[in-house]
Amino acid sequence: MSDSINSNKDTIKSLFGKIKYKISGKISDEATEILEDAGAEGTAYFSDFVTHCIAGTDASETDISDALDLYEIPAITSDWVTYSLKCKELLPTRAFLPRDDLLFSGVNAAFSQLTVDDCKKCWALLKFFGGKASLKLSGNSTHLVIGKTSGEKYEHLLKVPTNIRLVTPDWIIDSYRAHRRCSEANYHPRLLVVPQPKLDHQSTAHITGFADADLPSEENESGAAPRSEILEQLKLRMPWNQPSAATST
Asked: I need a surface site. Which of 110, 149, 175, 197 has the fewest CB within 10 A?
């Protein structure tokens, strides 16, 4: 058993010690070790005492339907066991249904250029609706969820031919809100709108040091101050036209 499991024996027993489960198909070795170390009771048949049906690869559809409909107990994947241990609490079973018709079923996303908080939110939505997520990009990845048009993963996918879709986190959120997968093409990171800093538009008076009130107010017959008079006033106020101050000895 791994060191991480050995260091959590008390947690394992408190979480899974009272569970009575039936396995359908083949579950992960890690989940098997956790359940055995917790002292959870496994059985080959359903009964009124079974609390969970853990479905692995090649799970029987009959077992899953019997668990849900006949015995009214949760049917879950073995990920429920491993992730519950990582979170140190029994996670909602709805997030680990052994179904392939959920919103993000078949999605295996990798994350890049996201904050820790954004990673957690994206992982939760993907996992709850049948998807998978990882920080690593692999041959099994179907999507790269990225927050910026930069980074090693992004540059790598631009250079090599691949079927991996590049999307921003908004693709996950908008798909969830729409109850359907939105088109990935509309969420490519190159379409991100980067906020531009506001420019401080300064008046000419601020730049030259002359306030508008200092300009001549006299107007000609057309209602405007003579241009020549304005220029003369400006010339007189230039530093080189000012009388030199007396220097101290």
From this structure: 197
Sequence ranges of the chain with CATH classification 3.40.50.10190: 9-95, 108-191
Contact call for residues 3 and 57 (beta carbons, < 8 A): no
Query: pTM of the prediction?
Result: 0.64
Q: Hey, what amino acid is at 113? A: Q
* Phi (first) and psi of residue 55, to 5 degrees: -100, 130
Helices vs strands, H then E, count in the chain: 10, 8
d(CA 249, CA 246): 9
Which CATH code of 3.40.50.10190, 3.30.70.1070, 3.40.1010.20, 3.90.950.10 fits the domain covering 108-191? 3.40.50.10190
Eight-class DSSP state of 103: T
- Angstrom distances, CA of residue 138 to CA of 135, 145, 157, 162, 188: 10, 13, 11, 11, 19
| pLDDT tens by residue, 178-208 | 999 999 999 999 987 666 666 555 555 555 5
Under 8 Å CB-to-CB from 199, ≥6 apart: which residues?
none
